[in-house]
């Protein structure tokens, strides 16, 4: 039986030490990210379970601007006043979305829990077994009463499927996630920053209603919050979308 040379033994032992070190760093990163999300979750009265550690890590690693695919749209009009952008009128094409309906006590709880379920779907918990990739924005459909003075509890959190998956979307393991095809839609979009809760959303709805020349052309009780940063971020980039009536 041939003896292993000291040199090859050193390299073999060295590579196994490197692998152990990489695994340890991997575990430490997972714990750090999970701990951060759990801390943020507590602020929104949401429990972030331990099985979210891997999806959180995977999403974080693939969350550079180059890795994210923006939802395609056609810009129809930009309305400005004194150099400030008031709103954009856009057309989004027919497309498939992974959607989950939520009805927690608070809006923040609904979007956090809905987003976590979609994260699991994106991070390999689907029939393809693959990481699907991030698309932005993640959107939430909200409903108000006709007078736009109060927001309903039920919301829908939705993830636009990447272009390469539009024809054959992977099936979600979570039966609460439904793949829906949304028709082509014209939206009026206005940007805002910060947290999204019942108060800030109602404020943005009322503000855009005042700015639009003909708000009656849009649905009066259904709106979309588009989120470009994850719910754990402090200073989020959001948009409020009014939907033009079909």
Enter the CATH topology name of the largest domain: Multidrug-efflux Transporter 1 Regulator Bmrr, Chain A
Radius of gyration: 22 Å
Level-1 CATH class name of the largest domain:
Alpha Beta
Q: CATH homologous superfamily name of the largest domain? A: Regulatory factor, effector binding domain
Number of strands: 11
Based on secondary structure, the structural category is alpha+beta
Give the distance, in angstroms, between the N- and C-terminal Cα atoms. Answer: 79 Å
Topology of helices and strands:
Elements: H1 6-43, H2 53-61, E1 69-70, E2 74-81, E3 84-92, E4 95-102, H3 107-122, E5 135-136, E6 138-143, E7 155-160, E8 178-182, E9 185-193, H4 198-211, E10 218-227, E11 237-244
Parallel strand pairs: 1-5
Antiparallel strand pairs: 2-3, 3-9, 4-7, 4-8, 6-7, 6-10, 9-11, 10-11
Helix pairs in contact: 1-2
Q: What can you see in these coordinates?
A:
The chain has helices at 6-43, 53-61, 107-122, 198-211; strands spanning 69-70, 74-81, 84-92, 95-102, 135-136, 138-143, 155-160, 178-182, 185-193, 218-227, 237-244. It is an alpha+beta fold. The protein has two domains: 16-60; 67-244, Regulatory factor, effector binding domain (Multidrug-efflux Transporter 1 Regulator Bmrr, Chain A). The chain is globular. The termini are far apart. The model has no long low-confidence stretch (mean pLDDT 85).
